Amino acid sequence: MVLSLIMLLYRIARPHDALLDDVDAAGGTVYRGVADKATAAEALETLDADLERIGADLWIARANAPLRELLTATGLMKQLGAEHIFPSVRAAVVAYQAQLGTP
Fold it and tell me: Which H/E stretch holds residue 29?
């Protein structure tokens, strides 16, 4: 019990804090912790850049509403192109086949 009390006092004395950075996004300003450098949006942005270097496009299938909102807020929807974001794998495959002109 004493150990639990000590841990509680320790946590109260050192609350979680973060230095925030503001990033302009399509939907307004987004705040994130300066130490948060491995975000999903940045990973997608890096992947898109890597694929672009080899002449490939990034298509995203099964993009649910929260993912679409994230892509819009971070400006990735515009960068990737809304025509490359699909609600299902089937929709992505159909669009890809239409682009290639194959049934």
Answer: strand 28-33
pLDDT at 62: 93
CATH class for the domain made up of 18-100: alpha beta
The dihedrals phi and psi of 24, each to the nearest 5 degrees, come to: -75, 125
pLDDT band per the 50, 70, 90 thresholds, residue 33: low
pLDDT band at 24 (very low <50, low <70, confident <90, very high): low
Give me the residue spans of the domains in the chain: 18-100
Note if the pTM is more than 0.70.
Answer: no
Distance CA 10, CA 30 (A): 31
Task: Give residue 56's pLDDT.
Answer: 92
Vertex 79: Cα angle to 72 and 69 (nearest 5): 15
Q: How many CB atoms lie within 10 A of CB 41?
A: 17
